[in-house]
Amino acid sequence: MELELIINIMYATLKTGTPLILIALGEMVCEKSGVLNLGQEGMLLVGAVTGFIVAAVTDNYFFAVFCAIFAGMLMSLLFGYLSITLAANQVATGLALTIFGAGLSAFLGANYVGIGLEGISTIHIPFLSDLPVIGKVLFQHDPLVYLTLVLFAVIYWVFKATRVGLKIRAVGENPEAANAIGINVHQVRFMAVLFGGAMTGLAGAYLSLVYTPMWSDGMSAGRGWIALALVVFASWKAERILLGAYLFGFASIMHLVLQGTRFEVPPNIMAMLPYVATIIVLVWLSSDAVKTKMSAPKSIGQPYRPMI
């Protein structure tokens, strides 16, 4: 395999894995607080269409990214009100949010289908971008790729070395005990859900403004669901989410690369490879149910009703 092709594959892997990292890290924070949000796919689509419409109307990409984040937070606020304040079933609420988000995004973006944008351009870092091999792989990306890595580092540090991370884990493990020592369980969970919505909205902006700077109905292509599986695959650890997202990105890119070779395999079969890989990983994880159960937050998916 030629060196240039290998460089391009590595470069594309980082770009493809970026939205998955954002969604999965946000969902990890939610789940560590004890909230299971299955509405990621819907929030992702709403964030993507919001960012695209704002960029198309204003030609201001910074404002478009901000609006996409805000849209994701609004969607998560709706989920939080239903699942935390009203203590509704989290699984049913999340599925309803996905269906609602898919329909809302299709309605809002109906007049923008097929319209292309210039998109957020890459950054040229003096000297570093011109380095052979690693110059393109690491130092010729758009700002959102680097922001994603910064967010990963912050989240990793928060859960490793701060009281905030300890509070979130305490609420996720035993909300009654956390409440007994003075932690506001509902407040912590709301903040975690809002953060998850912001991360998913940012991922949506990345899809419609960077990865494929256009809008098409259902452009998320199941990334919200893949990110949910990725959190379990990573055992709720940020560093494993980073690795898993890039592995999925690599699988996604390789199916395109293999189509350009002499492999006489139908393209639809090749497109299935990343998702087949996800299923295989989940089956492998399910074989050790005890380990998975030990890793998961103990109160995940369970509504908390404070004693009066």
UniProtKB/TrEMBL annotation:
This is ABC transporter permease. It is found in: Cell inner membrane. The keyword Transmembrane applies. The lineage of its organism: Bacteria, Pseudomonadati, Pseudomonadota, Gammaproteobacteria, Oceanospirillales. It is a multi-pass membrane protein. Signal peptide: none annotated. The chain crosses the membrane at residues 6-26, 38-55, 61-82, 94-117, 137-159, 190-212, 218-236, 243-261, 267-285. Keywords: Cell membrane, Membrane, Transmembrane, Transmembrane helix. PANTHER family: ABC TRANSPORTER PERMEASE PROTEIN, SUGAR ABC TRANSPORTER INTEGRAL MEMBRANE PROTEIN-RELATED. It comes from Thalassolituus marinus. It holds the Pfam family BPD_transp_2. InterPro entries: ABC_transp_permease (IPR001851).
